[in-house]
Write a structure and sequence with these properties.
Blueprint lengths: L11 E6 L4 H11 L4 E7 L11 H4 L9 E2 L2 H5 L4 E4 L3 H14 L2 E4 L6 H10 L4 E4 L5 H17 L4 E8 L9 H14 L3 H4 E2 L14 E7 L5 E8 L4 E8 L3 H14 L5 E3 L1 H4 L5
Parallel strand pairs: 1-2, 1-4, 2-3, 4-5, 5-6, 6-12, 7-9, 8-9
Antiparallel strand pairs: 7-10, 10-11
């Protein structure tokens, strides 16, 4: 196992939370395909039927020699980095354990409250954290394009964001849609808390010029589609990303895990990982 800072690493070891879930199994498959990282621990909720099973087999891969456990300390003990796609409450708890154990963390969970976000920022002073609502390289390129479009169009175009996800998604709007809205608002110097509109019904009056609309669709097995609309007089510009598989998120999470282990303590996002920031 490599050290937590600097130097050339022969192998990075990762612990996976929610190891038997949709994202957990996708991440395990992505790790199986990458020779620079291996699984050292796998966590599931107490009472899960997957407890005691090998996460590799549960994901349709070769055995890893690891057993899925409900004990965070046991799952995290040998890891360099923890990859967490779970629930807001469990993510914060996992990060608290990671700080105690001096482990790096990649968080892809969404739906955090403002209090939970503040707690994560506080904890990130004590370890290395990549936190992003979407780990896809394509989505993070979209964020850069949205910022550039908002800057060029300079408030003369109405902004609407429409996101589509599967029927099982619990939070709305998606974390990705909120991040797109934040990027557009920040570029234009707007306070998203004041200009975001999440629902329109009835006689609502004329649209305000500074509104940023965010609308959610939940249906079927849609993995995740996001369209940002810049609508002006006589033309409309749309920036769209469609995910057809969770593998793109899993591969991004693995990329973030390999990147963060050698960074100084602090909170980062996928823009940092991909080198998109100036």
């Amino acid at each position: 196992m490599g050290s937590g800072s600097g130097g050339v690493r022969s192998m990075v070891y990762a612990a996976i939370t929610g190891a038997a879930g949709r994202m957990g199994t996708a991440i395990i498959r992505a790790i199986h395909q990458n020779p620079s990282i291996a699984i050292s621990g796998a966590l599931e909720r107490e009472g899960s039927p997957s407890i005691g099973k090998d996460p590799g087999e549960a994901s349709g891969c070769e055995k890893t020699g690891v057993k899925i456990t409900a004990e965070r300390g046991r799952a995290f003990k040998k890891a360099d980095v923890i990859i967490d796609f779970s629930t807001p409450e469990l993510s914060v708890a996992a990060l608290e354990n990671a700080v105690d154990l001096k482990k790096a963390v990649v968080i892809g969970t969404t739906g955090f409250s403002l209090h939970q976000r503040d707690r994560i920022k506080e904890l990130a002073h004590k370890t290395r954290v990549v936190m992003a609502p979407n780990m896809s390289v394509g989505v993070n390129l979209v964020l850069k394009l949205v910022a550039e479009a908002a800057s060029v169009l300079d408030g003369d175009y109405d902004i609407e964001i429409v996101e589509y996800h599967h029927r099982h998604k619990k939070d709305a709007p998606s974390g990705t849609a909120l991040r797109i809205a934040e990027v557009a608002a920040n570029t234009l110097g707007r306070d998203l808390e004041k200009v975001a509109v999440y629902e329109r019904k009835g006689i609502i009056g004329e649209r305000r010029r500074d509104e940023i609309g965010i609308q959610s669709v939940r249906a079927g097995d849609i993995v995740g589609d996001h369209t940002t609309i810049f609508a002006g007089t006589g033309e409309r510009i749309e920036i769209t990303h469609r995910a057809s598989s969770r593998e793109t998120f899993a591969q991004g999470a693995v990329r973030a895990a390999l990147w963060v282990v050698t960074r100084p303590d602090g909170i980062y996002d996928m823009q940092d990982v991909l080198g998109f920031k100036d």
